[in-house]
Structures are given as structure tokens and as C-alpha cells.
Amino acid sequence: MSQRPDAAPDPAAAIAIDGLRFRWQAGRPWVLDIPRFTLAAGERLFLAGPSGCGKSTLLAVVAGIHPATEGQVCVLGAEWQRLSSAARDRWRAGQLGIIFQLFNLLPYLSVLENVLLPCRFSSVRRARAAANGSPEAEAQRLLAHLGLKEPGLAQRPAAELSVGQQQRVAAARALLGRPQLIIADEPTSALDNDRRLDFVRLLGQECASAGAALLFVSHDRSLATHFDRVVELPAINAAVGEG
Predict the structure, then answer these.
(1) pLDDT tens digits along 34-48
(2) Residue 73: which of 92, 46, 101, 47 has the closest Cα?
């Protein structure tokens, strides 16, 4: 996965990677080795590759959850290696929307409370969500747009939802407050074919409306036609089992 090897990373890009290498421990094989990669602001990118090639690890490094072992990762103008752990957490909360592979919903909170969680951790997201009314109204709009219109559903505990419903709640939470980069790790894995296509279309519409870039990982290559660009992440060390 490389791009324009003679070009410098673009500081205005949503993601700019230069000389990224990552491994879990010293002396272990490299999981990621990416000379250069850029995701433009507002671009929608489909990231593909076989299991074990490091896709999920790359998303975690881009999100600042795992620091790069070597190299530079710049996200929305912030260089992760120059920020403290607390500063990375604040920047991630304010500027990134993440759809985790395992959803990471809080089962004892209601659907609406789960979607509103970014507003608890970021005044930036809260202000953006309230720009056209209130965060609660924006959360309800996103839920409805993603097909979660059932009366009373927003007040139900997340644990009572189907897996497919939970996946869409996780997407609404990631989109709330118009973050400028959405990172999605297998966000359609629990949806049937019709809902999968609808979800990708609606996610693209929300990103376009917010001017957000989208980094989307999926094993379902039939979805790739809905994106601006497809990038293959080659298997670097399949034995590690990441991706």
C-alpha cells in the first residue's frame, strides 16, 4: 500500500502517512510497512485485503489508539507522534467518528444515550450536533436516516437490539457532530444484502453532507463500486492474525 513515493505527505489531507512501520513487540515481525499513503479531505476510500494483512491494526494506528513504531501519521493536520496520550484522546473525540468492528455500545444505556456519547466527551462534537437544533434531535435524525424509525426504539437499552440494529446505532454515534474523518471497520458485517447496500449509500450521503473523509474496511468487495478509490493492503505477516 503505497502512493506517489516521490511526493511529500499532504498536511491538508484527512490522513497523511509517511514511512509507517508497526509491530506489537521489539523483535517481532512487522505488521505494517507503509512507505506513503494519503486520504484526501472528503474522499471515500475502500480498504481491502486478506485476513491477517493488518487492516484493523492500520485503523487503530490511524485513530491514534496504537502509536506507530516508526514513521509519521498525520490525521486532519495533527501528527500523532507529537501529541501526548491525553491530547490524542481529545483530538480523536472531537474530530474522528469510529465504527468499531464489535460496535462498543454500552448495553445498559438506551439507544439514544449511546448515540449521544460523543457529546459527553467533546464540546466540539456537541456544538456541531446542536448547530441545527439540539444534539438529541440530530441523533434522532441520524437514527431515522439509518432505518431505525421504530417507535420507542431510541429509549430501549442497546442490549435489546438485534446485531444489525446495534451496528447501525454505532454508525449513528460515529456520525453525530459531523466529524471530519469516519473510520469504519467492517460496518456491514451483520446486515443482509439489501440493508448493506442501503447502509453504504446512506453513510456516503452523511459523509458528503459533512464534508467528511471515509476510510472503510470490508471483506465484501461488491461494495467497492460505491467509493472513490480502492486500496489493497497486502498481507505483510498473516501469522499475526490482525485485520
Answers:
(1) 999 999 999 999 999
(2) 92
Least confident of 16-25, 48-57, 153-162: 48-57
Separation between Cα atoms, residue 98 and residue 237, nearest integer Å? 25
pLDDT tens-digit map of 147-200: 898 889 999 999 999 988 998 999 999 999 999 999 999 888 878 888 888 899
Among 160, 182, 155, which Cα is nearest to 171's? 182
76/91 Cα distance (integer angstroms): 9
Q: How many domains does the chain have?
A: 1
> What are the C-alpha distances in Å from 53 to residues 27, 74, 173, 215?
19, 22, 28, 16
CA distances from 235 to 11, 49, 78, 129 (A): 28, 7, 28, 39
Closest CA to 176 of 125, 236, 235, 229: 125
Spatial CA neighbour of 56 closest among 179, 222, 226, 183:
183
User: Which domain CATH number covers 211?
Assistant: 3.40.50.300
Residue 219 maps to a domain: yes
For residue 91, being part of any structural domain is answered with yes
* C-alpha grid cell, residue 87: 491530547
Which helix (H) or strand (E) segment holds residue 163: the answer is helix 163-175
pLDDT over threshold 60, residue 9: no
In this prediction the pTM is 0.88
> Which grid coordinates are listed for 127?
456544538
Nearest 5 degrees, angle CA 214-CA 160-CA 125?
Answer: 35
